[in-house]
């Protein structure tokens, strides 16, 4: 399959290894990965903050970059960005776009997937040949859980990883408190939510807390670092890309 890779803003600027791991994983599974160089932000942060007309050029650009019929699917290591493309783009196109934009959005929406969705639902694979000999707990992010409804797909992928010690995260479906600008505008509430999440993560004794969104991992990882928990955060794609011949080497976490 010919798969378009959307990097996302956080992937591009702060977490490129999650994006690279997505490409490495898909190529290892025998697929052609293409990276349209003109891609930009999906516009999610604008819409979530109440600016719905402003992201029209971004929505149009996404449709143009990935609308090529030769691209059979589009994948991104982000449930929130996939949720934006699949739900918000249509709203923006209907309210502020023209017929061409509405058509383009409908085309790319139908073939856009978060990583675990693509692997399980489209490529029909759960065992991707990964190897990760560490204790891991999984945090299901809000957009993937509630908007995309990926369910247990990430867990099914993790359970098939060779040598992994996967432990359940208590109150896993509780928000970590990030929510983009929510963490800035409602800092006290966000911090309280994060404190609860950190207690649950550290209580598992996990070496790694993983998730499908770099934004949530950034929030949780920052908190773990500040309390010197000794637990690292790592994107799901990086675990799935790790193999016996090319294992992911964990960096030392703050203690």
TrEMBL record:
Transmembrane segments: none annotated. InterPro entries: Cys_rich_dom (IPR004017). It holds the Pfam family CCG. Residues 4-85, 136-220 form the Cysteine-rich domain. It comes from the Bacteria. This is (Fe-S)-binding protein.
